[in-house]
Fold these 4 entries.
Entry 1:
Amino acid sequence: MSDSKQQFHKKLEHCLCPPGDGVFTVNTAKERKDALRQKLYGQTEGIDTLWKASLNSLTDSEKKAAILGISSDCGGGILRGANWGPLFLRSTLIEQQPHTSAFDLGDVRVIPHLLHDKYLNESTISNCQKALYADPESEYYVSPLSITEDVCDGFYENYPDKGIFGIGGDHSISYPLTKSYLKAKRARGIKTAIIHFDAHTDLLVERLGIDLCFGSWCTHILEFLPAPSHLVQFGIRSSGKPKSHWESTFGVKQHWAHEIRERGAQAIVDEVIAQLKADGVEELYVSFDIDALDEAFASATGTPEAGGMTPEEAMLILSALHEEFKITGADMMEIAPFTDSSLAGQSSSETTLREGAKLSAFLIDAINNS
């Protein structure tokens, strides 16, 4: 293993933790964590040692897709609880999508009160470095967005032909995931686009004075795209401003939920494919906020919205895009298993996780086959 990869693997051991452990608990949710450990490792004890040993096989893994959990909802702002998404979605994938597999890097070590290191003073950073790394002068970041970007930068540097599938967590997490992806692809001369499924535009400049959060992350990755129109949004329907405002202000392309319903998903995606091909796009990153789906299918989320897409519409669009372009990175965000705003008889968590797992499995398989 090269020195660069050895340093990167050392960083993984420090900045990440075993899959499902991203939410720091002592006794709470022990049974749920043990259930995932049993599925992944066949045992519930000594997991830290097994997980660290597994990282050594990343270099030789034939799987292109690598799962990274980021159990943070500090960048949210309505209903919290998406920090449990990585644990629950992994379990659902194993149970309901057994044909899908990926290398599991584990979870970012999350201090739940933090968002990004730039918001912290030196004293706080030092205290948090002591808590996370037992070293108040550690070289590593302490906030989930900062750690995620650092880890992803190292991943793409050392494994340029692999892709990360991020599991959140609130949608602020897509900022470091997409930023690292776009920087890496640009350095290699690969023309990319971000395909963004969401009920909301996430195009605020800031929210209550915070510039990196679930409602603003898209605005701040535009500078890393080849062109603003390479951010293509599907499923928008909850906005204080019309589509014309967002497209004229930022130069993005939007396809609102009612347009997909009225014109049909195939007609919409045909236009998108034509646009991206005309622009010379080669590879896609898909960021999927589960609230892009109608609340009948995805109510276990921080901001469920009526009038959304069906899972079939979303899958049709993804399948059509995958036929024409490589999908080399993706994420699934905003699944909050313990929230329940549904009036239906079936658990909203079960329904949301089932649909999220189907879409996640498709995206993981697409990365593996890219």
Entry 2:
Amino acid sequence: MSQPAQNAVDISTLSVQQLSALQARLTQELEHLSTSYQRLRAAQLRFRDCIRSIQQGIQGKSGETPLLIPLTTSLYVPGTLATPADSSSSSTVLVDVGTGFFVEKTPEDGIKFYTGKVDELAKNLLEIEKAVGGKNDNLRIVEDVLRQKMLAEQQAGGSASKQQRAQASVG
């Protein structure tokens, strides 16, 4: 059951200056949400790259397999997969769990970890999309009311100047 917002204000009662300030604030919030959306999308793509790296680079490959190791997003160095000292153990990958911490996991667990991150970010992206849609609607409404008030002020100013000119010509 939805309840009306406690701080709801009838924007038609606001002055042009207040509407302009509200418009600027909504625009700033939209820019912030858009930036956040872009950053989350980039993080999601990085996690998908991690999944792809595990699937294509390590999973199912034997020791001494040549591969390129990423040092940055654009710098790779040649390397080979090391053969585990204990041949009974499966290969492991280092998974970046954030803030410079890495955890050793099996390739399957690494993929599962990154898939969870991708799914979590997808939910956050949907929430941001909804917020952006709501802010866009609010901004459009504020702009419409602002435009109407400015036109009304112009028309009132034009009528007043016509009356002043008519009185000056009569007197």
Entry 3:
Amino acid sequence: MSPKKPPLEKAWLATPLWATGVSAAVIAVAQVDLLRPFYAQWDKGAHAMCFLVTWWVFHRVLGMGRVAALVLAAALGAFIELHQIGLPGFNASWSDFAADLAGIAAAWALAAAFPARKDSP
């Protein structure tokens, strides 16, 4: 008889799917011109939070090293800003990229403050 998995372990497997769904929802909301004025004041915070979660998923969920997760998350942030150059209604911004990097740095600090358990997947 196999032991039951703790609920946290079961939830851990769903984290990449959850993160993908949240990211898709954020991107969908960002496409609606009428909604932009309502979240414009939280733009930098949203960038930081999204990239905190992105780095965390790369590092803790997918098992990448800290530096690899940093490089991949930063490259994703840079790609998004470069991609916005050609999108009507969007503006590429160094301050958005800086907010992305701030979120990555916050995630790194959280990972250092709360090391992964040895028995986590």
Entry 4:
Amino acid sequence: MSECSIRSAVVTVNDPADLLVAIRAIAEKNSTHIILFDQDRMAGRKHAEAALAHAARSCSEQRMIARTFEMEALLYAAGSRQCTVGREFGIHKGENHCYVCLCPDVPEVWDALCAHITIIPVVEEMSSSEKRARLMKLFSITETELAVIGEERMNELVLERVALLEVYR
């Protein structure tokens, strides 16, 4: 898989299925993959990068769990083999803060996507107690683990969980 490009975006979704149909049409027309990760469930941009890298390797080695590259990336983001869990890491009804990923990057696609989403400048990831609690629950991270490695390294634990999906195949 060629180099991917990742940008932050905001999109208000009335009907997730309608948006995904439009996104898939843009992707197919431009021979690329478009993945939308829910930033509120992600441990930063590195989490999105890791999910894409694992999905690309899985695809190139012809050992994907999912039928599509997009779902494979969502499964890796979730650190799960279950598509229902992976879907939770994508868009949802209402306002979405997301990472928009193009694999491979096709510059014209960004213009086409602007009819559906609003690209925003990269902002520093903020850590909140709410997001901390959400990530701990999603990735089964215990207070004991955090005490051992330090709170500031929680994102590394999430990336470890993502990588463990390779082992659980």
